[in-house]
Fold:
Amino acid sequence: MTYEASDEGRGGLAACPACVAVPAAERLAELRRIEPSRLMLSLPSAYCAACISTVEGALKTHPGVRSARVNLTLKRVSVEAEPDITAADLAHVLEGVGYEAHELDPGMLSMTETDRQGRELLMRLGVAFFSMMNIMLLSVAVWSGAEAATRDMFHWISAMIAIPTVIFCGQPFFKSAWAALRVGRLGMDVPISLALILASSISLYETMHSGEKAYFDAAVMLSFFLLLGRYLDHRSRALARSAAEELAALEVPRAIVLEDGIEHLRPIAQVAKGDLVLVRPGGRMPVDGVVVEGSSEVDRGLLTGESLPVFAGPGLAVSAGEVNLTGPLTLRVSAAGRDSSLHRMADLVAVAESARNKYTTLAERAARFYSPMVHILSFSAFGFWMWKTGGDVRFAINISAAVLIITCPCALGLAVPAVVTAASGKLFRKGVLIKNGTALERLAEVDVVVFDKTGTLTLGTPEPSNLDSIVEQFQSVALALAKASSHPLAMALAGRIHTAPAEVTDLREVPGYGIEGCLNGAKVRLGRAAWVGVESVPETATYLSVVGQTPVAFTFTDTIRPGAEAAIAGLRAQGKAIKLVSGDNEAAVSAFAARVGIADWVAGALPAEKAALVRALADQGHKVLMVGDGLNDTGALAGAHVSISPAQALDAARVASDIVLLGRDLSAIADATRIAKQATKRMVENFEISAAYNVIAVPLALMGAATPLAAALAMSLSSISVSLNALRLK
Amino acid sequence: MQILAILIPVSLFLGFVGLVAFVWAMRTRQFEDPQGDASRILTTDYDDKPAQSAPDA
Structure:
């Protein structure tokens, strides 16, 4: 098998059709240039120092790996290795030492690696901090009674530090304020910019005229606290964006294309309609297509929610996303990439998503109220003092600047980002990734939780359920046969039967049907009902026939996902109603619902019905949390108030949901709703705290009694108390 | 009060040194993995150099 590097990075080469023939030489040259490849793997379960040494140790002892470095903050490991090492090998190594690992596409991750905007903000933050500390030093001297020439000198030094700092650090605010003004809006940034500019220019004017009050410290402190809020906000956004990218990168889409009988591993973007694609057992259909060769069974769980595998043979159509179980299949591609049924379903999601984006967050509601208020207060203070003092412009401007500085949404700018940072950091450590900025607030409002069954509450892997009632002789024959196959039902049997296998010879797997062999000269078969020659039972089952004896059925149930019961119990304890909606048949769903203790269930739901059910609940005024993984859930995921999907879910489902569980464990869902609720409470508290400071300080400022010291105190105390309150999150 | 003429430049200079150190740390990407760095100090592996910097995009 040859591996062809993606052409995307060298866009120029693939641009003209005539070039297609040329790269052959270049490719040869490239093969010769032995360059270590950089691989990136996601490590959702790494969290401590021991994890770092285990992971790095395991990778470094793997032949061909040159270096490995874990990034615990992003839960990733980047590996430099010989070109022939694939990420799949490394993921296997890591699974061997007990860590879940997923391959990431380094190309897609490059954006988050070089987070230029974040570093720029951090740089401004550092500069603002330096200036704030130095000016504060000088200001304390002024406040404690420096007089005349000394005060003027301190003011001049402060000015020399503050003015360049405000110009440099205020840029993010000036830019967005200007952008808002140009379209005729008043955002949060307009009063901020006004306060910064007014405070520095008034202070400069006062300094030149040996005035007593200078607000350089306030101006710089303002930019520091606001930048801090901005930086925290940016960081949680960047994390959400990197999460989204990471998810897109989780499944590096490649397909094995057959050309003149030679296999080529290609990115899916390069697969065209009419190509022949080979799908090995255990692989996922990368494209829509029609089977031209081979027969097998396919698992449609992710698309339809069915837990029973379906037969696939020549002439039958398969869709992208289905998993091939037993035999290799060769497909003639009927639709690939954007045209495949997988992507068409994902497109439907976009409509529902835009509706959700209309959600107004707490911060937006606060800003809508706050911004006009600040302007009105400041202008009316100016007008009042102009009238009162009979036209003393200098005094009136001084007052209105003080009002602007004090009311400036310093604590308000920190109120939400500080809480979101604390909460999403906490959830990230529990393996919950918040993809959408407003998801936390929406999650707090949830009162109904709708679960999907296959792949969400269950792992989608079967577990034998009636082994106890089957005699040992049959068990040992079944074990011998099951060991020869990689079909999930066979593997589940082989893993759970603990007797010695019978001596079955001439084992042969018939793809799509089952396994057969010879026991003491007689034929034995394990597989589909029709092939074995019995009536099928309604549950998921495989059948064993031994000549001369009544065939037996081995029935299976789905393995419950770890933490599913804990999550359900936790959500119920929080007073949320729980529903189970599955596309699977009634018998399987009712049995499962009884097992996990959900009384309210719907079986046989089509994708549209799932979405309709969620919409109906929303119309009744419920806020629905949808938890699902399959393509059949995407409509419901996108339509719900907020949605969660496990990392193993299909791309489309993960794109449609706001929150993704990185690990296998579901119990984090209950934590997530609890933390979300607490976080929203903290945000409201933070607004109250900053309002309280304003209620005390604004009248002082309006009366003209606010000194620079009072402004500095109000600003720093409110910002600090808001940040501390955010940290109280448990 | 003459001492101020020395102390103020000194304090400004020291602050500036801090700022330069911060800018240097930023530029050399030492804030890429704060959690990992906090944990790494606890491992017994001999680890004498920082992460190999990612290629600049």
User: Anything to note?
Assistant: The first helix of chain A runs from residue 11 to 14. The two ends of chain A are 52 Å apart (CA to CA). Residues 272-335 of chain A form a domain with the Calcium-transporting ATPase, cytoplasmic transduction domain A fold (CATH 2.70.150.10).
